[in-house]
Specification:
445 residues; mainly alpha; Growth Hormone, Chain: A; 20 helices; globular
């Protein structure tokens, strides 16, 4: 490291990468939970319940289409200007979009303008989150000590678990304290408005950071790439494809187990909202536990073997969906949610290190962020919508096959990748080198 490059403390790096993603995913999951409960009847014309649910899930998917745009936009500035300022901007975009949703009038008040504005703000959420994860992952991995990139890359990966737990926990508390009419009328808006306070906390933490030393050294040694997005697709297309498909299993497991299952559990299995949210909060704890375990294992045994094991288990889990979720009992549904979300955490943990490792420094922000978010389009954007159609056309077993196919895609992608845990993130900043130079075990990251 250069003596001129300020060094972030490891504690500050861990906190900043974790807090930011936790807040961003809290914002994102607040909408995901609301889409399964109230978005349809609040923002769309009165009609069949199924039509409103499908419209809500389509609106949910809009953000995933926006996320690669956010990845390219924030990745451009993250690779040219720096990680720190870009992370602050992404948090502001997400926070403003989420807070405004909390104040948005419904269909009964402003008619067709309501779903239009909702889609615009949901698109804004996607733009913000599209730029968030890549920067947080780079913040963690580019500051990681030797041999611990997987472990430090785990901190932004814990953000979704905590963000989801807080989002669902808040909805759970509101659902208990308010009547059903009060919840549908105004109570669901509270988590959206509460987001503004969380964003202020995240901004405070991130503004205290120094720029990534890896990026600082790269800028001193080489001119920044003029258009990182074009370089990523022209010279690193294979890595983008592999990284995107590797992420598919994480998204499919998560959104089938949460958004689709929440809708199915409350409307078809007739669980009350508080009861099902309670089961989800329990299952997310298992997801949170699996994430650091798999990250630690990936430092010890490698990213590929850990991810190959996780994706194979996810293939098998698809065949458990119909008997467990369809069983309809509290125990069977809880077991289904625990298995799926544990496997999501297990496959998600190593991704914080893997995706940054497959791109050189000069385009690392853009490459990692785009791969992560294209995986979201494939694995999650339409997952609740497709699952809803599948269950209506063929039953729950078809939804299980959908999960298994998504997991198989990820397994094949990981199988074709090189092991990355010994790659040197400092060794190369040239965009024409697909990988940084491998190091011997124990060398600097």
């Amino acid at each position: 490291m250069s003596e001129d490059a300020p060094i972030n403390s490891r504690f500050r790096v861990a906190v900043a990468s974790f807090v930011g993603t936790a807040i961003e995913f809290f914002d994102f999951y607040v909408f995901a939970t609301a889409s399964a409960l109230v978005i349809g009847p609040t923002f769309f014309p009165n009609g069949s319940s199924a039509a409103q649910t499908l419209n809500a899930f389509l609106t949910f998917g809009i953000a995933f289409l926006a996320r690669p745009i956010g990845a390219a936009l924030f990745g451009h500035f993250g690779d040219r200007i720096g990680r720190k300022s870009t992370l602050v901007a992404s948090l502001l975009v997400m926070g403003m979009a989420t807070t405004l949703i909390g104040f948005l009038p419904g269909y009964n008040s402003i008619g067709n303008l309501a779903p239009i504005l909702l889609c615009v703000l949901r698109f804004g959420q996607g733009i913000g989150l599209g730029g968030e994860w890549g920067g947080a992952a780079l913040l963690a991995t580019e500051n990681a000590p030797p041999g611990k990139r997987g472990w430090y890359g785990m901190f932004p990966q814990m953000g979704p678990s905590i963000g989801f737990l807080c989002a669902n926990g808040l909805f759970f508390g509101i659902a208990i304290l308010l009547s059903d009419d009060e919840f549908r009328s105004w109570g669901w808006r509270i988590p959206f408005v509460f987001s503004a306070a969380l964003v202020l906390v995240g901004l405070y933490v991130r503004l205290k950071l120094h720029e990534s030393p890896v990026f600082t050294i790269a800028i001193k040694q080489n001119e920044p790439v003029k258009v990182p997005f074009l370089v990523v697709f022209s010279r690193h297309g294979k890595q983008v494809l592999q990284g995107s498909l590797a992420m598919v299993v994480c998204y499919a497991l998560f959104y089938i187990a949460t958004v689709f299952s929440l809708s199915y559990g409350t409307k078809t299995l007739h669980f009350s909202k508080p009861d099902f949210l309670k089961l989800l909060c329990l299952a997310v704890v298992f997801m949170g536990c699996a994430t650091p375990v798999s990250a630690w294992c990936s430092d010890r045994w490698g990213r590929r073997p850990v991810l190959m094991l996780g994706t194979l288990l996810a293939v098998v889990s698809g065949f458990m969906l119909e008997p467990l979720l369809g069983g309809g009992t509290t125990i069977s549904v809880a077991l289904f949610l625990i298995v799926e979300l544990f496997l999501m955490g297990f496959t998600f943990g190593p991704m914080g290190a893997l995706l940054p490792e497959i791109f050189p420094t000069s385009v690392r922000y853009t490459g990692a962020a785009i791969s992560y978010n294209i995986g979201g389009i494939i694995g999650a954007s339409a997952a609740p919508f497709i699952a809803q159609l599948l269950v209506e056309q063929g039953g729950l077993s078809w939804v299980g096959y959908y999960v298994s196919i998504a997991a198989l895609l990820s397994f094949i992608a990981v199988l074709t990748m090189k092991e990355t845990r010994y790659l040197n993130l400092n060794a190369s900043t040239q965009p024409d080198q697909p990988f940084d130079t491998p190091l011997a075990k124990g060398s600097a990251p």
